Amino acid sequence: MNRPIQRVSFAVIAIIVLLLANATYVQVFKADALRNDPRNARVLFDEYARQRGLIVAADGTVLAQSVPSGNRFKYQREYPANPNAFAPVTGFYSLRYGADRGLEAAEGPFLSGSDDRLFTQRFVDMFSGRDPRGGNVLTTVDPKVQLAAFDALRNGQCDGACRGAVVALEPSTGKILAMVSTPSYDPNSLATQDFDAAERSWNELTREDVPSRLTNRAINELYPPGSTFKVVTTATALNAGLQPDIRLTSAPTFPLPDSATTLPNNNGEPCPGATGGSVSLTQAFEYSCNTAFAQLVTEKLPGDPFSEFQNTAMRFGVGEDPDGIPMQVAKSTVGDLDGDMAALAQSSIGERSVRVTALQNALTAATVANGGVRMRPYLVDKLQTADLRTVSTTSPSAVNRPLSAEEADTLTEMMILSERETYRSQSGIASKTGTTDPNQSGSAYAWYIAFAPSSNPRIAVAVVVENGNQGSQSYGGVIAAPIGRAVLNAYTGGN
């Protein structure tokens, strides 16, 4: 064979080897990624030819189901129960836009039936001549609590449609009882098999000139927590061995270390109940005195105050990569303090660079309620086959103990006192409010975290409202607290 023919032969062989290698890579190593890519229309067509599994609330209420469509796609995804209220939990499944957000995306392979744990069911269905079926996802959501939270938030005291979130947890287990975000949307508008209608809905929901309705503000938005973070700051002091009767300044302002500025109390007034120009830590918490907390972290904490503060926040879950929801959750943070005492003072009251999700703040309240033990939050209780055989069950699990039982009892008593000082307070509740500096809309972020009953907690809640109707004076106790109490009462039967 002459040299030119030999070179051509080697080139052809090399091309064939590369083609075989590429085919192997695509069909073996990239198969799962390509199969699960929401842009893969063939997979969507295949999935719409099978009955996707149910998403079910804790009481058996069906939140998402597939029903016969009567057309070539065979099944239509449907959200029958108050879809706007449950949208942050379910997400949506669309022929046009794929499985997006919520459990539709997070548990997509199981719902579609492609999960390896459903192999036996697929095998039985194939040989029995049945259409392929997906598995069912049973959630921890209590519809009564979810609807109470949605209605209370949607009808809150807001400048226009309320923007905010509510998360409710069972402190002893970490079960998510409610996860609400407003403004919300109807997943049915995107699940329709009318492509034009789905596109119109998508375009409307993603307009840049209006607040996003697709964003799950409960777990994907980070907010400055304001004075609700004083729960973590107080825990820092108790962890460090300081007592609740330690004396702190009651002055109306506190000069920030190494800074020309001062940190004021609310309305620039002295802390109530002062004796000789000072208050106890208990009083500072009860009346939410900023200056006392600034002095606490900059002058009273033993050892390295930065490490004490940051380590306590981390034990509460701030700074961790949350897992197990199973949806993606934004990471809360205290920011980079970098040895700056002024930043530490501002962070102690939940300002500066401190940012948390509503879920994180609900966990903070739930940890105090649970005697100082932080439980891992979870939204999926069970996974079942279409024949109702349980594939997996989520068991409650403790993450750590940020507080001793005695310290948790001390903080509970402080939160009971705080509730008593809150507008239209209610007995049997332990709480802390928060009000931040004005945000871009000109309103403060209004917060309320609480648990009830205070003597034997069964539910913990966090509420955040972005656009209270009183602008910068949209206090957490006025705007967010009524929403939180409505949620607590819906579960405990209080009033």
Task: Walk me through what this model shows.
This is D,D-transpeptidase PbpA. The strands form six sheets. A six-stranded mixed beta sheet has the order 3-2-1-6-14-15. A five-stranded antiparallel beta sheet has the order 8-7-19-18-17. A two-stranded antiparallel sheet has the order 4-5. The protein has a domain at 226-378 and 389-492: DD-peptidase/beta-lactamase superfamily (Beta-lactamase), CATH 3.40.710. Strand 2 (62-68) and strand 3 (75-78) form a beta hairpin. The chain has 495 residues and is α+β, with helices and mostly antiparallel strands. The protein contains 19 helices and 19 strands.
| Helical fraction | 25-40%
Instruction: Assign the CATH topology of the domain at 226-378 and 389-492.
Output: Beta-lactamase
CATH superfamily of the domain at 226-378 and 389-492: DD-peptidase/beta-lactamase superfamily
Q: Based on the structure given, which CATH architecture of the domain at 226-378 and 389-492 is correct?
A: 3-Layer(aba) Sandwich
Strand order of the largest sheet: 3-2-1-6-14-15
pLDDT averaged residue by residue: 91
Unreliable sequence segments:
none
How many E strands?
19
Q: Assembly state here?
A: single chain
Protein name: D,D-transpeptidase PbpA
Domain Penicillin binding protein A dimerisation: 52-137
Pfam families: PBP_dimer_2, Transpeptidase
Domain Penicillin-binding protein transpeptidase: 164-488
Structural topology:
Layout: H1 3-29, H2 31-36, H3 41-48, E1 55-56, E2 62-68, E3 75-78, H4 83-90, E4 92-94, E5 98-100, H5 102-106, H6 108-112, H7 119-128, E6 136-139, H8 143-154, E7 164-169, E8 176-182, H9 188-191, H10 195-205, H11 230-239, E9 247-249, E10 253-255, E11 262-264, E12 278-280, H12 281-286, H13 290-300, H14 305-315, H15 341-347, H16 358-369, E13 374-375, E14 380-384, E15 390-393, E16 398-400, H17 405-420, E17 430-438, E18 444-452, E19 459-465, H18 476-479, H19 481-492
Parallel strand pairs: 1-6
Antiparallel strand pairs: 1-2, 2-3, 4-5, 6-14, 7-8, 7-19, 9-12, 10-11, 13-16, 14-15, 17-18, 18-19
